[in-house]
Please model this.
Amino acid sequence: MNFCEECNLACDGERCPKCGRKKLRAVRDEDFCFAARVDRTFGDNLKENLEREQIECVLMPYGTGVRSKFALPLESYLLYVRYKNLEHVRQILNNKNA
Ligand SMILES: [Zn+2]
Model:
């Protein structure tokens, strides 16, 4: 598995599917990787649940355009977790959608 440092994205191929960069390095267990875009409420709950399992995650507010200008709450987060937890977290996300 490779890792794009620009996008924090783990990918199979030699080229980052998001930015097209080819200078990727091998992913490490500790790398924070993009997992999913989640809505605010779900993100807050998920963070609590993950912390209970001692899994670190980072939530980046998504959509800093017009809404933040008017001081409206942001609707979603971009979720990042360490690569070693990525599969586990993806499974949680899949279960949520099932
Ligand atoms: Zn990239």
